[in-house]
Design goal:
This protein is of the alpha+beta class. Among the domains are: about 40 residues; about 130 residues, Helix Hairpins (Orthogonal Bundle), CATH 1.10.287. The chain is built from 7 helices and 19 strands. The strands form 2 sheets. It has a 15-stranded mixed sheet that branches. Strand 16 and strand 17 form a beta hairpin.
């Protein structure tokens, strides 16, 4: 009986142990089930995320492919940003004038007797331009010459006295006295020589000296006689006679000068650019007959802004482009900068002198004058077409820079000196970049571009030129 309770206790303990083991097993299965569920959920989430990533990647790739298919490649021309010397070109429209020009006018009023058609003809200094009618002047000149002769005769009559016979006798006596003195002096000198050698006596020498003294006295008497006769005339008569002679001579000289004016001659060598009158016309004194211009050397007078003229100096080189001869380019030199400013438009007149031996420049024609100022060395330079300015008068703009993958990117730049078809870049570029010169207008940033073959050849040619290589 005692063993039965013990067996029952063992059975109960075994049953309790069994129950505890089943609970533990149950708990382990539940834990495993939870872990399995968590793993399945985790794997499912990872698979879901992977599927989403793949779908997003495919979507983006499809969008990029669609974008590439809808964004065509743009063909452009490009140029390389280079460093070189640049100078600002200032221009103005000027007028061509001959360096030497003369308006030939008549100095007397008369009818044109001879005058050929001279316009556009080359004439030389001294050539006859016209001959004016001068018959009346010639008649007046002859009359004046006769009046001068009469005045001189009257003056001679007043000066020499009113009795010609007495005057002649006095003049003869004067001449005889002079001859006698000459002869007596010669005789005395010969006898003096003989006396010194002992050839004659002193008495004979004294006789010769007496004869010489008498001859000299006779000469003085004759001279005093002539002088007394001249002084005996009225001084007023002599003055009036001299005045009449002087007046007649001046009148004759004036007529000779007027006669010389009847032949009109060219004062300079040049081309007759204008002829106002022709043969047979009546010309008044001071009226222009022809205009002669020496166009072998010309001056282009151009008005520059006063701010620009301050940068110019005499001796600067200038380029002249005639408006009536497209493609013709000539070089000259600044020879004058006016010291006054036109108050109406604030401009200063600048003269550019240049040779025109070939006659390409016409007188009074228009020509564009270009002068280089503000020169800079080692400046970054790009073609003007590469820059899109924010405004026409602005110094800021954009360029399209092509990278190594042929994609164009917009770049802000600031420009400086402008010279013809190139401009200086003062900021925004470093040098060596490739910029779009044709096709850059309204080109979006990031656009794929294709460089044209012509642009490649031009860029290669410019590279050879800059490096000094021969083609």
């Amino acid at each position: 009986m005692d063993e039965m309770p013990e067996e029952n206790g063992e059975v109960e303990r075994e049953i309790e142990t069994s129950e505890e083991s089943s609970v533990v097993v149950t708990r382990r299965w539940e834990s495993l089930a939870r872990r399995r569920r968590i793993l399945i959920i985790t794997v499912s989430l990872l698979l879901l995320l992977l599927i989403i990533a793949v779908l997003v990647w495919r979507s983006r790739k499809g969008a990029e492919t669609a974008s590439e298919e809808t964004s065509p490649v743009v063909s452009v021309r490009v140029a390389r940003v280079e460093r070189q010397t640049i100078a600002q070109q200032v221009t103005a429209l000027g007028t061509v004038v001959p360096r030497d020009q003369a308006q030939v006018s008549a100095k007397i009023s008369a009818q044109i007797k001879q005058m050929p058609l001279l316009k556009n003809r080359v004439v030389h200094a001294g050539d006859v331009i016209a001959v004016l009618e001068s018959s009346d002047l010639q008649a007046q000149r002859n009359e004046a010459a006769a009046a001068l002769g009469e005045s001189r005769a009257n003056q001679q009559s007043v000066t020499t006295g009113t009795i010609p016979q007495n005057n002649a006798q006095d003049q003869k006596a004067l001449r005889d006295a002079r001859a006698a003195v000459t002869n007596a002096r010669a005789t005395y000198e010969r006898r003096l020589a003989l006396y010194q050698r002992g050839g004659i006596s002193k008495k004979e020498l004294e006789a010769s000296q007496l004869e010489l003294t008498k001859a000299e006295d006779d000469l003085r008497l004759a001279e005093q006689t002539v002088a007394l006769r001249t002084r005996s005339l009225n001084p007023n008569d002599r003055a009036q006679a001299a005045a009449r002679v002087n007046q007649a001579a001046q009148h004759l000289g004036a007529l000779d000068a007027q006669l010389s004016y009847a032949t009109v001659r060219a004062p300079i060598t040049g081309v007759v650019i204008d002829q106002a009158l022709y043969e047979g016309s009546f010309v008044s004194s001071g009226t222009t007959l022809v205009t002669i211009a020496d166009i072998s050397q010309v001056i282009v007078k151009a008005p520059f802004a006063d701010t620009v003229a301050a940068q110019l100096k005499v001796g600067d080189a200038a380029t002249v482009l005639p408006t009536d001869a497209p493609g013709e380019q000539m070089t000259g030199q600044v020879t004058l900068i006016s010291r006054s400013v036109d108050p109406a438009n604030r401009t200063v007149e600048v003269w550019v002198t240049l040779g025109n031996e070939a006659g390409h420049l016409r007188a009074n024609a228009a020509a564009q004058v270009s002068v280089s100022t503000n020169a800079k060395q080692d400046a970054l330079v790009v073609p003007s077409s590469a820059v899109t300015l924010d405004a026409a008068n602005s110094n800021e703009g954009t360029v399209m820079v092509v990278d190594a993958t042929s994609v164009a990117h917009e770049q802000k730049v600031t420009i400086g000196v402008r010279s013809g078809d190139v401009v200086e870049i003062t900021s925004g570029l470093q040098g060596g970049e490739t910029v779009v010169t044709e096709g850059n207008y309204s080109l979006p940033d990031g656009t794929k571009v294709e460089v044209s073959e012509e642009s490649n050849s031009e860029e290669g040619g410019s590279g050879n030129k800059n490096t000094g290589d021969e083609p």
